[in-house]
Design goal:
Elements lengths: L9 H25 L6 H29 L11 H21 L6 H17 L2 H14 L5
């Protein structure tokens, strides 16, 4: 059975984590307002993913502007590991900060959206060095192909 289900790489794990954080933020925020609700998972998930996407776009745009200003060729992301990992960590941190800042835990989806945006924008800047680092870490792991 293990050979039928491929193992997820870091980007896929971060993408699923990003969706999970947005869904949990949506469910918890909806449950605070209306009682136990599961239908708020999809809007929270989608809004967090959109925040991460626009954050990655902003980060790559700023990076390309800085590179062309310095006379370098624009960078086009190939693997996009940096912004996806940054979006996941930003969504998690933004949600936790919103929980800490709000007395009743309201607006968790706003925290996850803003965190995903900021994390993805910051993760897009070092995107070209994240994938080679991950590949070198994979080479150093014993027992992995």
């Amino acid at each position: 059975m293990r050979e039928l289900i491929p193992t997820l790489d870091t980007k896929e794990k971060s993408f699923h984590g990003l969706l999970a954080v947005g869904a949990l933020a949506g469910v918890i925020e909806g449950s605070i307002r209306y009682g136990l609700t599961l239908h708020t998972a999809f809007p929270g998930m989608l809004l967090t993913l959109l925040g991460a996407f626009f954050g990655g776009f902003t980060g790559f745009f700023l990076k390309d502007c800085l590179r062309t200003w310095r006379g370098l060729k624009p960078y086009r992301g190939i693997n996009n590991d940096g912004w996806v990992m940054g979006g996941f960590l930003g969504a998690l941190a933004g949600t936790l900060l919103q929980v800490a800042a709000s007395p009743d835990g309201a607006n968790l989806v706003i925290g996850s959206i803003l965190g995903a945006y900021a994390g993805a924008a910051c993760g897009a800047i070092p995107d070209e060095v994240v994938t080679p680092i991950l590949l070198r870490m994979l080479e150093k792991t014993p027992g992995k192909p």
